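#random but structural
TW: two for the price of one
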Amino acid sequence: MDWDDAKYFLAIARNGQMLGAARALGVSQAMLSRRVAALEEACGTRLLHRSTQGCKLTDDGKIMFGAAERVEAEMLAAAAEMQGRAGISGTVRIGAPDGFGSAFLAPRLHLIKTAYPDLHLQLVPAPRSFSLSQREADVAVMIGRPERGRLQVRRLTDYSLSLYASRSYLQERPAPERVDDLRHHPLVGYVEDLIFNDELAYNADILKDWRSSIEVSTAIGQVEAVRGGGGIGLLHDFIAAGHDDLVRVLPDQRIVRTYWTAWHETMRGVRAMQAVTERLHDMVRGTPGLFVPD
């Protein structure tokens, strides 16, 4: 059995389709199909169900997937040991919610690069969850503790959200004095049917029948909509702190959530990933009072 064949099989199993796996590996679909066929012939069984909707693992394929992941983990551990002797290097991709990734982490990536100049860093700040098993990211910052998958998780920090309006908006309309007054203001929030995590459905924690007149699918976009005078929004305090044109209203109303870092258990021995994760936690610890202001 050729390990390269198993490597191609893993890519398909994680991606769920031939085309996506071929693109990720930089090979043709024809080559990918031949390599998986060779692996199936060596195993004497079918490992994948192929259809126009994609590829699904057979029962034997699930057994092979687990075995191939264990072999991969051992190889990663060996690579990590060699990296430990050679220094921190390689590529580490960080997946993060757009607010944390763009507003906090992106301006500080150079600190990691300065500490580890041989590292190549990739940041994917996006309003969605990340599949660590499919290697969409090496380490991910997640909203809420992930409960599924073969993941290692670590609490990063609590963060708070408060109600804000722009100074220009408040020059034209009186600030709300009580929560019920919000019903008389245009509200800014997430696009309801694109909320990817129940932890983000927090507007109802402030006002049970919250109805946004402007919906934006990203945290950064919501900040900009409120800054533009679009209404009142529930914004991340650590992002709002960087904008003097935002005014906090109803300051007794606050929502608290938690960021977690997570990585697939097969990555636990990769020294570069461990170094990046530790630096990330150090950066957060170095900003006391930013994520949950007094």
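TW: number two ↓
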Amino acid sequence: MKHLNAFNLIEGVGSQKLALLMDYFDSAEKAWGAPLAELVKAGLSENLAGRIASERDRIDPDAEWEKLEKEEISVVSLEDPNYPELLREIHNPPYILYTKGDPSLLNSKMIAVVGSRKSTEYGSRVANSFGRDLANSGVTVVSGLALGIDAIAHAGALEAKGKTIAVMGNGLDNKSIHPRSNFELSQEIIRNGGLLLSEYPLGTSPLPGSFPARNRIMAGMSLGTLVVEAAEGSGSLITANLALDFNREVFAVPGPIFHLQSQGPHSLIKKGAKLVSSVSDILEEISFVSESKNATENPKKDGYRPATEEEKSVLDVLGQESVHVDTILKLSKLETATALSTLSMLEIKGIIKNMGGQNYIKL
């Protein structure tokens, strides 16, 4: 594990690269000591292989592992039997997960609760109530420790003396916890038998791109995602759409029709999300899902089916040869912002790869 952590400290070595290395080498330790030519043979670019060869001269795997132990942070890899079973089935699952707290929760019955950072009084009451009632029903409440709905859902679960998992887009060391205003909440989660979870190593500060990646973990590891309040185009809707892509349940709480924060849930309901007014509405669905041995299709086995027309337009352009973004824009006939957003989402899902210089291939 210490060598997986060491690789994860090197910029450019993400889940897909770790998977390539582990497929080629017998162990992360062998990969760490491999010459540059062997790293290239494993499927890495010469630039990345060169960066690894240079960076490992300054990274001491043992010393970095001691830092994790000092922070009481554990590591779970994709090959570990304790790795979340549902998360293992998505496209591009995190190869390495950092945990702080009770790791046994990784395979509990989970529901993600997401919503606006600028929650209304109504939304706050709803998030607290659902967080509390889900926890009372033995469900682990998953959220992102963000301001607003996330923090309130966590707090509701804690009020019920239940379990909750905070999935974050930053390192789990005390200095990296974000937002700082929710640091005490993060510690309360740990003290009460909950869990902090991240795919990012020690010292990682959150970046804009960290949050969509974080959202795929929340959606992927949970039986369903509940959206309480969300404006159109918000991160909460990204989580919900990812849940749909992963063949998970999506639940939405209706709100006042004149409020902007109601637009997201109402849009989801129109698209087929289940309207819920109490936790019993959710429990009926997840009881059915969890009893089925085939609750989740394995998209890697079945082949990826585009979730939107925009994804289909982009994927129709891409193949095994790299295509520049300008060509993608021209052939897909999509607006620039739409095309770039679609490319980002497909890359998060592990369907395409940015080869550098805004050139993409289909995996």
